[in-house]
Amino acid sequence: MQILLANDDGIHAPGLWATQQELLQLGEVEVVAPVIEQSGVGHSVTYRSPLQVDESFHQGKHRGWAVHGSPADCVKLGILELSPQRPELIVSGINSGSNYGINVLYSGTVAAAIEGAFFGITSVAISLSMDSPPDYEKTAARSVSIISRLLKENPQPGLLWSINFPRSDAPIKGVRFVSMCVNRHTEAIERRIDPRGKPYFWSSLNPLENYAMDEGTDIHALAQGYITVTPLKFDLTNIDVLGKLNQETWDCE
What we know:
By secondary structure, this protein is an alpha/beta fold. The protein contains seven helices and eleven strands. The protein has helices at 14-23, 71-82, 103-106, 108-118, 136-153, 218-223, 239-245, and strands spanning 2-6, 28-34, 53-58, 61-67, 89-96, 122-128, 160-165, 175-177, 189-193, 199-203, 227-232. The chain has a nine-stranded mixed β-sheet with strand order 3-4-2-1-5-6-7-11-8, with helices on both faces. It has a two-stranded antiparallel sheet with strand order 9-10.
């Protein structure tokens, strides 16, 4: 199996290389990752300037490709140009930080997986809570075990998955299949003053406590110490509203 591995934390991120080592159990792995961290860029793509790519080496051997662009750029280039064969699996991560709730829409990690799904390739985003010192190696091993089972039990190509791991220093209670939590209680911007008296702003953190603890969601399960697996789709159409509107006739004079 040809696997394409990307991330949004950059080519030197430890979570990336821990994942690469474990994925070798499943097939050949080509790494295509951003030159620098691209967290929170969502599904941005580069189209107004050229995309530069640097080959990465380790101990004199090819290690992967570093892209001067976004995570979505990396996957697009990986599929169309840089992978020796068309990938059968796209993996993005391990991200240093959770991607739960509506953070999924901001996440460069998830965007890389979505880009793979655009091409009809099964794609998986992996994220790890940073509430404790991260254990990337153990998380990578658990990730590949989950991915292997997902591929076996859901063989149809083009599926899109988001996996979130709770903090590394707590016991894992198991795996839960859950939806995204979209009910956020609070959001804030912190206002500060620089030495010249001019205001500037920091986006606040978005912890689990900012969300409603609705059962059956990623927020609720992660807070209880479960690994969460969420099947995603990128069609944003509101089917209920569309169905209602299609029963009406509108004229425009």
